[in-house]
Amino acid sequence: MGKGEASIPDEEWERFLREAEAGTKGAPEEPSARARMVAQRLKEESGRPEPWRSQQPDRRRRGKGWYVIGLLVAAALAVVAVDPGRVAGWFGGGGGGGAGGGDNAPLAVESKRPSQPPPTEAAAEQPTVEEPFRGSPAAQWGDGTTGIGMPEARATGWMTKAQVAQVLKKSRDFLAASSLDRGVLRGERPTKAIALINPHQRDVQDYLAAAFRTPSKKNDPLLLFSRFEKTKVRLVGDVVKTRGRITYREGDRGAVEVTSDVTYVYPVVRAAAGSREVARTIVRREVVMSWDNPAKIVIEPGTFSLVSYKVDTTNGGCDTYTGYLTPKFGSERAASRPGDGAEVDPYDRSTSMDKRMQESGDAGCGTATRS
C-alpha cells in the first residue's frame, strides 16, 4: 500500500459501536436494495436512468445505469473507458518520475476541485523505466495515499469529531486496499477492501462474488478495484501517483457520507523479462461510502455501506471484460483506430465525474489527449 495509510484500533471501533447503541433507541433496519426510491437523485440528473443490471446495446465499452443500495440515496454508476488509440503525444511539465523526484516541485495536496486542467506544455520526453512519470503531470503528484487530500474532521450526523476523523482514515484505507495494494494490483483478490464493505448489503455482495467469479460488463471488478494480469504486464517501480481528495457530509439517517474522487496513475511494462517500454494506465474513481449508525442500520462495526461508484479509465482496455486492466503499448496503440467517443484529458480534474459522464454521452471509447 502507499504511504500515509492509517488503521483504526479495535478498541476504537468497539467504543464507536457502544456509543451508537447507547445513544439511539429503536431497532436497526437491514439494508434492502428496494428500500428507497431514487426521486431525489432523479431531480439532479438529466435523462431517464436505466436499471444497472439492464443490457446495454453499445458496441464498445460504455455503460450508464443506476443502482439502489440499502437505505441510501441512489447514485449514478457510469463508466467510460478511454483507450488512447493514437495518442497525440506526451505532454506535461518536464521530467520527474521515480519516487516523486524531478525538476518540478511536488504539488500541495488537492483541497478543492481545480479551476483548470494541468499545463499541457508539449514535451518530447517519454517515460522510461527509471522515470516512469516523465512527461506527465503526475510527476508532481503525491505517492500513494500522500496524494489524497484529507479534510479536517468535525462532529457530523451521529458521530463526534474523533469518530469522524477515524472514518476518514478508514475510508482512505479502503482506497489503499482497493487501488494501491501491491498484491491487488498484481491480480489478487482485494480481500482487505471487500472486508470494509457492509456484508449485509446483499446486492453488493452478490455483485462482488460474480465480478471475481465470472467478470462481465454487468459485473466488472474494475469499477471498484485496480488489477493487472501479472502474466501480461508488471508495474514499474514501487510508486503509484495519485491526486484527489476526500470530502464528507451528513447523509441519510444521520450517517457520515464520505466521497472520494481520486486519479491513479499506474506505469507498467510488458511482463516479459527485460521489457523496458513503459505505458501508463490512468484511472479516476469516485466512490461514495456511508458510515451508518448501527443503531439504525444493520451494519458491522468498521464497515461502510456502498452508495455509488463511477470510473473513467485511460489505456485500461475497451470492450474487454476480463476483470483486469489491459494497457496497450506504442505499437498496439499505433495500430488501433481512434475511439468513437469524445476526446478526454485524463489528468483534468477540473470537471466533476458527473459532468464528465454527461459530456461523454453514450459513445463508446474516447480518445485520450495525453497519457
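(the above was protein one; protein two follows)
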Amino acid sequence: MTRNRLSWLLWGIVTVAAAAIAFAWFAPSRSYLYVPNEATPVGDKVTVEGERPGGDDVGAIYYVDVNVRSATWAESLLPFVRPDGASLVPRDQVVPPGSSFEDRRAEGFREMARSEQTAAAVALRQAGYTVKATPRGALVDAVASDAPAAKVLRSGDVITGVGDTDVLTPIALRQSFTDVRPGDDVVLRLRRKGTVKKVTVRTIESPREPGKAIIGIRVSQDADIKLPLKVEIDLGAVGGPSAGLPFALDVLQELGTDVDHGKRVVATGEIGLDGSVGPIGGVKQKTYGARKAGADVFLVPAGENAAEARRYAGNLRIIPVTSFQQALSALAKTPTN
C-alpha cells in the first residue's frame, strides 16, 4: 500500500470515528432527561386584585420546575456527561404509549391552569374571603393506551368514586388505592357527558413505584370555582400541577399576610380544594433547584417525596407538609437561618 493510500485510509477511519462520536454526543436517544432548573420567585408571576404585599423584602416564595428533554445517546450511555442532578428516564414514563411529547405538554398546561384556580381558591378562603368552590371529581386528562383502563375510560371522564368510597379530588383518588395491589380490579363511579355509570378497571403496577397499583391515567381537579377577586398567574411555558402549593402561599402573601417570615421559601406540591397537599414528580431535580436558589427551607409533600428530598438536600432544611395550613404553621414556627 502506498503512503498516499495509507494516508487516505487513516483519514477515512478518523472521519468515520469522529462522525460516530458526534452522533453519540448530539443525536437524541429514546430516553429522556429530568434536568434541574433553579427555583424562581413566584411574586412577579402572580397578580391579585387589591394586592397589598406583607412581610419584608428579605424573604420570598419560590416555585421550582424541571426541564424535561430528550437525552443524547452519550447521556444515555455515559452518566458522567449528564448535567449535575439529572436523571435518565425511560420514554414510557414521560410519554405514555399512543401519545406524543407535544400531547403531554398540552396536558401539562391544562393541569397548570386548573392548579392556578384551585390554589387561588384555597388562598382566598384562608384570607377570609367567601369562595364558592365545589369539587366534582377527578377529571381524566389522559389514559395510557397500553393500560387495561384504555378499554373503559376516556379523556374527559370525571371519576367520582372508587368502590363505595366517594372521591371528589385527585388526591382522594390516589389515597383510595392505598390497599389495592397491582392486578386487582377496581370499580369506578364516573360521570361521562352528563351520564353517571360504573366501570370495572384492572390495575397495573406503577413503572415508577414498584408494588404500587395504578390504573394508568392522568387526572386533575374538576370543580366549579367562583373567585371573589381577580387572580392572574402566569408561568409561561411551565406546565403541570406541582406549583399549586407555592401559588397558594404567594397569593396569600400578596393579600397582606406575612407568609415567608423573611425566609427564602421554595415549595412544591399539588394542592386540593380542601387545602391538602399531594405528591409530585421530579423531587430530586427540584431539590437541586432549591439548593441552587439558596433557599432557607423547602416545603415538600410528606411521605416518599420528603424522604427523597432529604437524600439530596445537603444542608437545605426540608419541611414535609400534608396541607396548606400545616405549611403556614411550619413557616411561622421555623426560625430564619
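Reviewer note on protein two: The first helix runs from residue 3 to 26.
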